[in-house]
Amino acid sequence: MAVSNIRYGAGVTKEVGMDLQNMGAKNVCLMTDKNLSHLPPVQVVMDSLVKNGITFELYDNVRVEPTDTSFMDAIEFAKRGAFDAYVAVGGGSTMDTCKAANLYASNPQSEFLDYVNAPIGKGKPVSVPLKPLIAVPTTSGTGSETTGVAIFDYEHLKVKTGIASRAIKPTLGLVDPLHTLHMPGQVVANSGFDVLCHALESYTALPYHMRSPCPSNPISRPAYQGSNPISDIWSVQALRIVAKYLKRAVRNPDDLEARSNMHLASAFAGIGFGNAGVHLCHGMSYPISGLVKTYKAKDYNVDHPLVPHGLSVVLTSPAVFTFTAKMFPERHLETAEILGADTRTAKIQDAGPVLADTLRKFLFDLNVDNGLAAIGYSKADIPALVKGTLPQERVTKLAPRPQSEEDLSALFEASMKLY
Amino acid sequence: MAVSNIRYGAGVTKEVGMDLQNMGAKNVCLMTDKNLSHLPPVQVVMDSLVKNGITFELYDNVRVEPTDTSFMDAIEFAKRGAFDAYVAVGGGSTMDTCKAANLYASNPQSEFLDYVNAPIGKGKPVSVPLKPLIAVPTTSGTGSETTGVAIFDYEHLKVKTGIASRAIKPTLGLVDPLHTLHMPGQVVANSGFDVLCHALESYTALPYHMRSPCPSNPISRPAYQGSNPISDIWSVQALRIVAKYLKRAVRNPDDLEARSNMHLASAFAGIGFGNAGVHLCHGMSYPISGLVKTYKAKDYNVDHPLVPHGLSVVLTSPAVFTFTAKMFPERHLETAEILGADTRTAKIQDAGPVLADTLRKFLFDLNVDNGLAAIGYSKADIPALVKGTLPQERVTKLAPRPQSEEDLSALFEASMKLY
């Protein structure tokens, strides 16, 4: 139950140079993506580095929704630079790319698949020390600044997978709400859905003492260990903030209170799921974004079809929690109440439908596309979506209820239309 | 807002040898006190070290309520041993002694006062790396396994002071409820009062954005930074557990559920106050225990007069929170409600008395001595008690309301009798 170091506050980004100096860093790798590289968050970091006399090289070639190829490109850059610290400025794609770059540059002799999650990779434990990494999130969703997880598309198999190890967790996250003030509403909404699902999935994940196998050596235990008394605290608190602030944060870019709270909720949910894990919404989301046909999300400045991660996650949530509520219905009902449902007269056996209705109303209020059909999928795609979910066993096995292929099929079908 | 690494569960202590091996440790210093050195918690650790082929030396000379002299003795032992990791098994005294030993053995050229809190010491920031330290708490109170604080009696001035730096925070806390099953009820109660006050004081501490000064370099900021959105979560959760489980844990040594929860609450409150700080109950407690005359607490196996730390802290709590509730009364009322008060009809201006009454009832139910008079103090001692509180500015300035010497005097006087 390792937790994370974050510093929160408007303007904390400008302290990054001092932090690096305090860590003794002299030659720093600054990673970001091309959209951000000329925007204020990166500028503030560069100014702080210059002011504190820290030499750095800028890598702005991060791919939004990274792949093994894009990871390798960043890793090669990191290896050549022989850096003694890293700063990642951006969303989950940038932070995850930077974690991978740090990991492989610190282990130059390792093969790429060595640390990739089994069964796709070898899932080896990390036993060499990494360099310090400071993460500066500019979206309020991924929580990657607090987790030991780096997600990418493995192109060869056309599946999302990742690297998961406490060793790649950032040394420090600078959670600075100033970076969130100019995010378009649609980006805030989709990022917020990621927070919502991190919180819901981690809180309803299989309890830690029911997970198997249980490796006897602590170093071999997975980062995702099932719901537990520490992750619960973070997940519930993140959910409370989402319930209170997400709609306000979406509607008004200048609502500093709402956007600040969502930025903090993203980190809180990150600490929660980074310990407990996520399950079906995330496991099923990977083929939903991976098999995208022509859907292009509004407000996302990319040149390829894209289902934003948060959207791909949340569209199945009513179906998923209806399914999982058969186990631990009390927790499902509790989350429905936090999200605003009046549960005083609800029956415990209705926990699933109550939570699903609450989620549908929440998504409807935020103008979310009406299910998988609205983003281009039809019944004919279900076999491929199911096939794409099966390799996500690392997360799907954390669902409180086991699923057959038929179950997955039914969950995708039930998610075609929401309203 | 740095937080801590803990592993929680019945039996986790026996993994300590693997953890040390994973850290690459070969020559370990095991610290404990003479009472514990032949008891199961230490035995389990030694067995695990032997089983994993780790060489170690045992230091069992820790003093309960340590002093600068006893710290120095442990530091000398640590310097001679040239250890590459530390394990502390015991209560706060042992963990704090071990933190100091690790700090000064890692900085052999430093003077003792270099890192001691100002104004008594120089309060220098720690800039050299320390060795890994694994803390195994055997009481459920101090939370020292999660904090960067080490408290001792500075004999020359007859005051409690300490060392506070994120750098001395244990690398890992093994929170193993099996160690708490044989604790006498009185020890459970007093330890629990420490948890109670950690939670109440950190939750009502001056908010972090109102604290001054605000050093521009993050490394110079105090570990105790005022209440903040992260510490709040831990403090409130710890308080909820105290409300639900402390009485059960006191009354029945075999109540594993209650004692497990209190062990976790101790760590949670530690993370809370380790970030936010404590204030008046703790600041005033140091002279209460330091000036002890003849009081010897039942169930404590020591050869000198002793007011247990938790008792010295909690006896002033009704007076303190009546005083501080003038500021942030909502938070005071909220804590009263968590502790069981019916606050539906309470007026916000009565928050202080409501919380004080709730605390008095809680203490009465647990047979706590009737105030400072019952442990040997009289009105004539108040000037000395006030004088002993003044040097505790590091914590007392975190109270939400500033205090004059007259205020402190009145608080001690109001704490002479509780019921």
UniProtKB/TrEMBL annotation, chains A, B:
What is any one of the record's Gene Ontology cellular component terms?
mitochondrion
Q: Could you cite one Gene Ontology molecular function of this protein? A: hydroxyacid-oxoacid transhydrogenase activity
Q: Any idea where the Fe-containing alcohol dehydrogenase-like C-terminal domain is?
A: 226-416
Entry keyword annotation includes Mitochondrion: yes
The superkingdom listed in its UniProt entry is Eukaryota
- Xref: SUPFAM superfamilies: Dehydroquinate synthase-like
Q: Which reaction does it catalyse?
A: (S)-3-hydroxybutanoate + 2-oxoglutarate = (R)-2-hydroxyglutarate + acetoacetate; 4-hydroxybutanoate + 2-oxoglutarate = (R)-2-hydroxyglutarate + succinate semialdehyde
Q: Which InterPro entries match?
A: ADH_Fe/GldA, ADH_Fe_C, Alcohol_dehydrogenase_Fe, HOT
Q: Which UniProt keywords apply?
A: Mitochondrion, Oxidoreductase, Transit peptide
Q: What class of enzyme is it?
A: oxidoreductase
Cell location: Mitochondrion
Question: Which residues does the UniProt record annotate as the domain Alcohol dehydrogenase iron-type/glycerol dehydrogenase GldA?
Answer: 5-177
> What is the similarity comment for this entry?
Belongs to the iron-containing alcohol dehydrogenase family. Hydroxyacid-oxoacid transhydrogenase subfamily.
This chain belongs to which protein, by name?
Answer: Hydroxyacid-oxoacid transhydrogenase, mitochondrial
- Source organism per entry reads Octodon degus (Degu)
Protein's gene: Adhfe1
